[in-house]
Design a protein that fits this description.
The protein is 53% helix and 19% strand. By secondary structure, the protein is α+β, with helices and mostly antiparallel strands. Among the domains are: 413 residues, Multidrug efflux transporter AcrB transmembrane domain (Multidrug efflux transporter AcrB transmembrane fold); 98 residues, 2-Layer Sandwich (Alpha-Beta Plaits); 94 residues, 2-Layer Sandwich (Alpha-Beta Plaits), CATH 3.30.70. The strands form 7 sheets. Strands 1, 2, 3, 4, 20, 21, 28, 29 and 30 form a 9-stranded antiparallel β-sheet that branches. Strands 5, 6, 13, 14, 15, 16, 17, 18 and 19 form a 9-stranded antiparallel β-sheet that branches. A 4-stranded mixed β-sheet has the order 12-7-24-23. A hairpin with a 2-residue loop joins strand 13 and strand 14. Helix 10 runs parallel beside helix 12 and helix 10 packs across helix 29. The longest helix is centred in the middle third of the chain and has 37 residues. It is elongated and about 135 Å long. It starts with a helix and ends with a helix.
């Protein structure tokens, strides 16, 4: 094949040129995003039920919805949590479920259930989780002094949102912190009492004045007209002019009986930028959009906003494109330094400037053509696929060096240029194909990991497979053609002498080889000892998801665990921000209930999320310490989490599951066990290291009890008192003004007095028009009750989070504890997911090793020689672990990628060396001048000399290309440093392994008895 293609250089060159042109065109159309657009198999159903208790929401809303959704296809887990006024149901599906269909199915079932839900309940929201739901940036909208907040809210909703949505690549714009305008009606109780009137008459007059004729029309000859009432109200003055009939028959304007005015609706949540109340707009990108083009467009739009709306300030915060830009910069840096160092090393070793130029042409062309595979497999350019490309570049350089070195060696042996190109490629073709297949055999099976990890590895596996496949085509076709083109005009044939530098290196190798082969048993024992020692280092390394990145931002998630209002929550947050006012560069906070459409977390008035950006890590650490001390000393009841701000990776991998949770259900009552009974039971738990789960958390509440005996005595209907209480303490909407899609509620103004004063100052009317103090019919008491009601498929449960180091040892004790109290016990949590993932990973890696063994057995036609390659792997891994330990790094996603890169290069070197030894043994034995034992000894030594140059060149160029990252700073360098340390450590040990361990192991595994007999 090589001979055929080299005979047609113009056709080959034009074909590659056409592929590169197409690849360049395709590259401009590929979507660029932070993460692959993965469908997370989760759906959240959110319920908002004003003035309802957790128990009421669970019984009347969440329980019917759970029963209706339990038959969903692929449903793996269902958990619900109801709190005051809000409730959520989290649905987790089996991975691989068609989430588009599941989303439609959930919505259809919710629609069917709507008739069985309370009439006043708004339709539950159904939120589908997707990686593209993570906002790419946040736009802060801050009103300047003396600017109406409601007008700014209307500007954000009606103008800014629509202008940002029009930007190419934007899928959704979400807003938090909006303020809505309402009309409030505050009855004048003294005037009403003097005229013998009640609030009901005022409410009835407003409802009548805002009534609509539903679909009534009149006929006028041949025409038909729809009727509308001209008495509909639009403004507070319209309402104040409405007539109200007094019992005496007098008609009184409503302005004499109540005060009507525009007001801002009471906020259940706020957004702060710094210490200023503001709005925040989150921007979400389309899956097919390019983030590196979207963010500049968004920044340009913000500049226009500043010009068009000078009464408002705008800032762009939490830009997630920084991670992507860091990954792209790292890839560019690797290519740049890789090219520079490869040129220098190749020039030193090869004595010819043309070889580095050939590699300089082949590297970017391979990278560019691999993007064609991205296009045909619907892959985007993201952090995961870019890391796959970076992983493949090391192998790409390796293949190029091996092919060019072999062609040069063939040419120096006396072959013509044309034959040297053909023979040089054919000789290493089988070994290079095997090395690529073994790399893929180690890596590709990881795609079959369950969950998000497997989906992320898919992008990486396709990226690796594409660049390695392209690198083979380039090595077998483009490189020999370029070599032939560059050297065809040179009639001088090299004499085979090496450069002075390499000659010195070769002498060192020969000296080391002789010493090792003279003491084979000793060195073989030393290598055998190094394998377990290196792997033991892994036991002392810390493990984490992503490496520690020098983050200058931090978040504080806090639940005050007290029944406070949203305004009090805001005051406390301002207090915390004031504490650090001179220390942070930027701060924002989402307080109380969040208005985001895509927010799938718990919405509670008592919760807040604060974000801080600092100038340095020292300033951040000091500020977090102060915050921690201040909250613990001033708000001991509060529960809070303080740490680094999560990036997109953290948000994707963060599990809502607790680490180890013990759940129980009361098998008799099917209800939560009371706090009074639960206290003694919890003291008997088999462990003292536990925390209360949501179903056991308590809060103070006021319980009203209606005195039915007195109501009956005074002939007052219970419904009358209930309605009066709902108007006094709840949000009572009289009616709505609807015009052109805008809805303005008319609400009874809620009194700000204490509830005891309201009970004592409010009168309730009997059927005979006599009135009584409301306090006479209502008893109240303070008590602690459960803050949340939690449930799953099987019904209501309560739980504790176990923080013990080895909680699985206590599982039988928890079951026994539950049986004694007639409780059904279930143990769940991330612990079991992690254990399942580890078992799955071990199984997949064993399959990978088996695949690697089968490929090598087919390549070498031996069942023994593949073991040599397999035994080189733990030596390289041990070297990587050693450097990670010395550098203070951890085992994480990036260091794992570095291990795969390093193993790919190590396997490549070992395969080629064994292949060379086999070929030389055959040549020497067929010559008939030496015995098989002598042929073995000479082949081992000569193969080492032949492969020394490409092995050293590959290792040195790879290591030198990565060294600058170690001394760099910033987000990208922090992210890539563990990868670099793993590669450098593995290749340093791996180079020694390939040079000396492979011939030693080859000698050990070869049957000496048969050789001597031969």
């Amino acid at each position: 094949m090589v001979r055929f293609l080299l005979a047609r250089p113009i056709a080959v060159f034009m074909t590659f040129l056409a592929l590169m042109v197409f690849s360049f065109i395709v590259l401009r159309t590929l979507p660029i995003s932070l993460l692959p657009p993965i469908d997370v198999p989760q759906i959240v159903v959110k319920v908002s039920y004003p003035n309802a208790s957790p128990e009421a929401i669970e019984q009347n809303v969440l329980s019917p919805i759970r029963e209706g959704l339990i038959t969903l296809n692929g449903l793996e887990q269902m958990d619900s949590k109801s709190g005051s006024e809000v409730g959520t149901i989290n649905l987790t599906f089996e991975y691989g479920t068609q989430m588009e269909l599941a989303y439609i199915d959930v919505n259809e079932k919710i629609d069917r259930l709507s008739n069985s839900l309370p009439e006043e309940l708004a339709r539950p929201e159904v939120i589908r989780i997707n990686t593209s739901d993570i906002p790419v940036a946040r736009v802060q909208v801050v009103p300047k002094e003396n600017i109406d907040d409601i007008e700014v809210s209307l500007l954000a909703e009606n103008v800014l949102k629509k202008r940002i949505e029009q930007l190419p690549g934007v899928s959704l714009v979400d807003i938090n912190g909006k303020k809505d305008r309402i009309i409030t009606v505050k009855p004048n109780e003294e005037a009403l009492s003097a005229l013998g009137m009640t609030q009901e008459q005022v409410i009835s007059a407003i409802q009548s004045g805002n009534s609509e004729l539903p679909g009534i029309s009149v006929k006028d000859g041949q025409f038909r007209y729809f009727l509308r009432l001209a008495t509909r109200v639009n403004t507070p003055s319209d309402i104040e002019s409405l007539p109200v009939a007094a019992p005496s028959g007098a008609i009184i304007p409503l302005r004499n009986l109540a005060q009507v005015s525009y007001e801002a609706e009471e906020m259940l949540g706020y957004h702060l930028f710094g210490q200023t109340e503001s709005l925040v707009i989150t921007v979400h990108k389309q899956a097919s959009a390019k983030m590196n083009e979207l963010i500049p467009e968004l920044k340009d739009a913000i500049e226009l906003f500043r010009e068009d709306y000078p009464q408002v300030e705008f800032e762009l915060t939490q830009d997630q494109s920084n991670l992507l830009n860091a990954a792209i910069d790292n890839l560019s840096t690797s290519l740049l330094f890789g090219g520079v160092f490869a040129f220098a090393i190749l020039f030193i070793f090869m004595k010819d400037y043309r070889i580095p130029i050939i590699i300089g042409v082949s590297l970017p062309s391979s990278l560019l053509i691999s993007f064609l595979v991205f296009y045909f497999t619907d892959l985007s350019i993201n952090i995961i696929s870019l890391s796959g490309l970076a992983l493949g570049i090391g192998m790409l350089i390796d293949n190029a060096i091996i092919v060019l070195d072999n062609i040069t060696r063939k040419r120096e042996s006396g072959l013509s240029l044309f034959e040297a190109c053909i023979s040089g490629v054919n000789e290493v073709m089988g070994a290079l194909i095997s090395s690529v297949l073994t790399t893929l055999a180690v890596f590709v099976p990881l795609v079959f990991l369950s969950g998000i990890s497997g989906a992320l590895f898919f992008d990486q596996a396709v990226a690796v497979a594409s660049i390695l496949s392209v690198s083979l085509a380039v090595a077998f076709i483009l490189l020999p053609m370029l070599y032939f083109f560059f050297f065809s005009r040179s009639k001088k044939v090299e004499d085979g002498s090496e450069s002075r530098f390499f000659s010195g290196v070769l002498k060192l190798y020969d000296s080391g080889y002789e010493k090792i082969m003279a003491n084979r048993s000793v060195f073989l024992f030393l290598f055998a000892i190094l394998i377990p020692l290196g792997l033991l280092i892994s036991q002392i390394l810390d493990t984490e998801g992503l490496p520690e990145i020098e983050k200058l931002d931090a978040t504080l998630e806090i639940d005050w665990s007290e029944p406070i209002s949203a305004s009090e929550n805001k005051n406390r947050v301002l207090e915390l921000m004031g504490l650090l006012a001179d220390e942070y560069q930027q701060a924002e906070a989402d307080i109380g209930v969040r208005q985001f459409l895509l927010y799938g977390g718990d919405n509670s008035i008592q919760q807040s999320l604060l974000y801080f950006l600092f100038s340095s890590t020292d300033a951040k650490d000091e500020a977090l310490r102060r915050l921690d001390d201040y909250i613990k000393s001033n708000y001991p009841a509060a529960t809070f989490s303080l740490g680094d701000a999560p990036n997109a990776f953290d948000q994707l991998f963060n599990s809502a599951l607790p680490y180890y949770e013990v759940r129980w259900k009361d098998l008799e009552s099917k209800e939560p066990v009371s706090e009074g009974q639960m206290g003694p039971w919890l003291s008997q738990l088999p462990t003292s290291e536990w925390e209360r789960g949501p179903g056991l958390q308590t809060e103070a509440s006021v319980v009203f009890t209606l005195r039915a005996d007195r109501l009956a005595t005074y002939q007052i209907p219970m419904e009358t008192v209930q309605d009066l209480i709902s108007r006094l303490f709840g949000t009572f909407t009289i009616t709505d003004i609807r015009r052109f899609g805008e809805i303005t509620p008319i609400r009874l103004k809620e009194s700000q007095d204490r509830f005891e004063n309201l009970l004592q100052n409010t009168r309730v009317y009997a059927s005979d028009s006599s009135s009584y103090i409301l306090d006479e019919f209502v008893d109240y008491e303070y008590e602690d009750h459960y803050k949340f009601v939690t449930a799953d498929k099987g019904g209501i449960y309560q739980s504790v989070y176990v923080t013990e180091e080895n909680p699985e040892d206590l599982e039988s004790d928890f079951i026994r504890w539950g049986q004694e109290k007639n409780l059904g016990i279930e143990v769940v949590g991330q612990y079991f997911k992690d254990r399942e993932n580890i078992q799955q990973l071990i199984g997949i890696l064993m399959i990978s090793v088996l695949l690697l063994y089968f490929i090598l057995a087919a390549q070498f036609e031996s069942f023994i020689q593949p073991l040599i390659v397999v035994f080189t792997l733990p030596l390289g891994i041990g070297g990587a672990f050693l450097v990670l330990w010395l550098a203070g790094s951890s085992l994480n996603v990036m260091s794992a990628i570095g291990l795969v890169v390093m193993l790919g290069i190590m396997v490549n070197d070992a395969i080629l060396k064994i292949d060379t030894i086999n070929r030389l043994r055959k040549e020497y034995a067929e010559g008939g001048e030496m015995t098989k034992m002598e042929a073995l000894e000479k082949a081992l030594h000569r193969a080492g000399q032949i492969r020394l140059k490409p092995i050293l060149m590959t290792s040195i160029t790879t290591i030198l290309a990565l060294v600058p990252i170690i001394f760099s700073s910033g987000l990208g360098a922090d992210l890539q440093r563990p990868l670099v340390e793993a590669v450098i450590g593995g290749l340093t040990i791996g180079t020694v392994t390939a040079l000396f361990f492979v011939p030693l192991a080859y000698w050990f595994f070869t049957s000496k008895k048969k050789l001597r007999e031969a």
